[in-house]
Amino acid sequence: MARVHNFSAGPAALPLEVLTEVQAEFLDYAGSGMSVLEMSHRSGAYQAIIDDAEATLRRVLSIPDTYRILFLQGGATLQFAAVPLNLMRRGRAGYVVSGNFSKKAWQEAQRYGEAEVLATSAPTGFDRIPDLSPVSAAAAAGDLDYIHICQNNTIFGTTCWELPETGDTPLVADVSSCFLSFPLEVERYGLIYAGAQKNAGPAGVTVVIVRDDLIAEGPACADVCPSYLSYRTQADAGSMYNTPNTFGIYLTGKVFRWIERTGGLTAMEERNREKAHRLYDFLDASELFHGTAERGSRSISNVTFRTPSPELDAALIAGAAEHGITGIKGHRLVGGMRASLYNAVERESVDALVSYLASFEAAHTGRSL
Ligand SMILES: *Cc1c(COP(=O)(O)O)cnc(C)c1O
């Protein structure tokens, strides 16, 4: 079996241990005589699977009892609508636009109320997290239903390392591409959401963690909010208002278990930082490649970089397969390269990438690193 060095931004690498476990249980789950794929979501066996996924996530992320955990469908993209539909009680929210996904979230919110841009790094091509002092000032004014940020900008390779102070205004964060990369102080957020396919599981599962008091009264735009999208409805139904992505939740639960038994989020963060430093150190010393994100905003999940020429970038990407390397092409919006270093990407894969980059640089500049 030849497994590649997979740097895909999502769907992305999953732990081999988890895939092997799923394979072993595929035809006959725990003596049930059937695959999880064939199991009723209303069965006791399946209830145990989703309960375990939720309980494990609660331990791994230290989620207080005052927060509900939902496993939904529709990706992070559907949450761009679900958040305003549920939380815009007075019709006004603030957005930090720090990349393409936060821009989409902001645009979607405008369909349901007033969505104001509080800070943006658009003028510098989203190469950094913008100055967030206007966010705290807007929060202090007290007339926003929530403030939305995208914590890790998958396409641009930036992370918001210092959360803005939002006082009593709930902070809502799209954490899709940094979810479970490092510990989060859940108490600082009103709501967190993540598409699982970046770092936590397969496509088709979206995790929402929401403070109970924010959904106590049901959706704000009750008339137009689809029942499926009501956090209150989904929380009351245990994420089973309708048939959930049963297999996806099962697999995601296995990833939570894998994180827990390999040292939890502190260990994940340490490994992820080592991997990212290995690559950033190489890029900083290189004369051919350069990282595109401003240093203080650098992501440890998605490392974006380029050469001075699109032709060289293309040659590098084309030659990667020969080295067993895949998924390093940058997002179509920005070009260049991107290596996603999610939890399941091994240190050896990063070493293989760095050594390929070094040999490419030597071949194209005559300089050896
Ligand atoms: C991938 C991604 C999305 C979109 O996710 P879907 O699950 O495809 O809807 C949104 N936000 C961020 C930060 C992402 O990385």
Keywords:
alpha/beta, 10 helices, 7-stranded mixed sheet, globular, 369 residues, binds pyridoxal-5'-phosphate, 3-stranded antiparallel sheet
Q: Give the % helix.
A: 25-40%
N-to-C SSE string, H for helix and E for strand: EHHEHEHEHEEEEEEHHHEEHEEH
**Termini Cα gap:** 32 Å
The parts where pLDDT drops under 50 for at least 5 residues are: none
Estimate the global geometry from the Cα principal axes: globular
In DSSP terms, counting alpha (H) and pi (I) runs of 4 or more, how many helices?
10
Instruction: Bin the strand percentage.
Output: 15-25%
Give the structure's gist in a few sentences.
The protein has 369 residues and is of the alpha/beta class. The protein has ten helices and 14 strands. The strands form four sheets. The chain has a seven-stranded mixed sheet, with helices on both faces. It has a three-stranded antiparallel sheet with strand order 11-12-14.
Give the secondary structure arrangement, pairings included.
Blueprint: E1 5-6, H1 16-25, H2 44-60, E2 67-72, H3 75-87, E3 92-97, H4 100-109, E4 114-120, H5 133-141, E5 147-150, E6 152-153, E7 158-159, E8 171-174, E9 191-195, E10 206-211, H6 231-236, H7 246-261, H8 264-285, E11 290-291, E12 302-306, H9 310-320, E13 325-326, E14 337-340, H10 347-365
Parallel strand pairs: 1-13, 3-4, 3-5, 5-8, 8-9
Antiparallel strand pairs: 2-10, 6-7, 9-10, 11-12, 12-14
Helix pairs in contact: 1-7, 2-7, 3-4, 8-10
Pyridoxal-5'-phosphate (PLP) is lined by residues 10, 75-77, 101, 150, 154, 174, 176-177, 195, 198.
